[in-house]
Each structure stands twice: as C-alpha cells, then as structure tokens.
Amino acid sequence: MNLLARVTAALDRGVDPDVFERCAVALLTNVYNNVEPVEGGSDGGRDADIYGPVANDPDSRGRILVTTGDVLDNLKRSRATWEKIRGAGEIFRVDQLVLVTHAPLSDAKRRNVLRYAETHDLPVPQFWTRDWLVEALRKDPEWRIALTGVEGRLDAVSRRTPLAPMPRS
C-alpha cells in the first residue's frame, strides 16, 4: 500500500482529537497569515484565531474550528459559546470562518453547514477536509507520524511499481 493510501486508512481509523487540533492549526499556518492557536479547556469555541484577515481592518478576526466529530454540531456549539461571550458584553468578531475535519465532507453536509452559516449571519466557511489533510501530511512527515503513525519515504507516494534497477554488464 502506498503512502497516501496508508495515511488515508489511518485517518479513517480515527485520530487523537488533541493531536489533530495542534496538527491542523500548525498546517494552516502555511495557508493563512497571523494564525494564533487558542489552547486549553476554555478556548471560547474556537481552536485558533486569524488576526487581520480582512484587508485594512487589523481588528478583524478569523476563527478556526477543528473537529474529529460532526462539523455542523461543532459549529453550532461554537456559535452558542460566541453568543454567550457577546451576551456578557464582550466584542467577539467572526469575519472569517475556517472549518477543519480529518474526514471527508459530503455535499449534503457541506450544504447544511452553508445554510446554517447563512441563517445565523456567519461568514461563508472555508472547508479543509481529508483530501487536503492527506496531501499536507504527505509533505510534513513529522506531523504525519505524530497524527497517524505512518512512516514512509517520498518515493512511497507513487501508485506505480518502481522500476527494477538495470542489470550491470
């Protein structure tokens, strides 16, 4: 089995939620600028913040939600937490919404999340799912091993059987 198939199989078996959260946030620092993890038990309904994602608005905030469970349920819980924070008189902006899962996300589930975001005045979410994660883990062996336990070399990525060495004359 090639490297990508082994990583996919390991993700399908499940991952440690705490390791996945740290891994996903670390990998997203390659995608977004100014990412700051929010660690600990009281994370305010998000796993990381993106500072200043809106051009010319340094006070804007992106919120990264990482889950090994249901993406929509996680978003609903996070939004409820954000409403409690706002209800206590604090300002809590959500200018960008990033949702991360180690699993595939069906079209129906994606549409349900989009509908929920629209009806609750949230930004259109950006989704990062298993296909992205498999590719990101291919490029980052330290996180691949930490999250999935899968070791491998880059030549193990190929789906073809490697060519046998040429016989020496």
Question: Would you summarize the structure shown here?
Answer:
The protein is an alpha/beta fold and 169 residues long. It contains six helices and five strands; from the N terminus they run H-H-E-E-E-H-E-H-E-H-H.
Count of domain modules? 1
Described by strand count, sense and barrel closure, the largest sheet is: 5 strands, mixed
Q: Assign the CATH topology.
A: Restriction Endonuclease
Please tell me the overall pLDDT: 91
Write the CATH architecture name. Answer: 3-Layer(aba) Sandwich
Q: How many β-strand stretches?
A: 5
Count the DSSP helices.
Answer: 6
Query: What radius of gyration results from the CA coordinates?
Result: 19 Å
Indicate the low-confidence ranges by residue numbers. Answer: 155-164
Secondary-structure element pattern, one letter each: HHEEEHEHEHH
Percent range of helical residues: 40-55%
Estimated structural class: alpha/beta
Strand content: 5-15%
Shape: globular
Distance between the termini: 33 Å
Kindly provide the name of the CATH class. Alpha Beta
Question: What does this molecule look like?
Answer:
With 169 residues, this protein is α/β, with parallel strands linked by helices. Helix content is 42%, strand content 14%. It has a single domain, classed as Restriction Endonuclease. The chain has helices at 3-13, 17-28, 71-87, 107-119, 130-139, 141-148, and strands spanning 35-37, 48-51, 61-67, 96-101, 126-128. A five-stranded mixed beta sheet has the order 1-2-3-4-5, sandwiched between helices. Helix 4 links the parallel strand 4 and strand 5 (126-128). Helix 3 (71-87) runs parallel beside helix 4 and helix 5 (130-139) crosses helix 6 (141-148). The chain is globular and about 55 Å long.
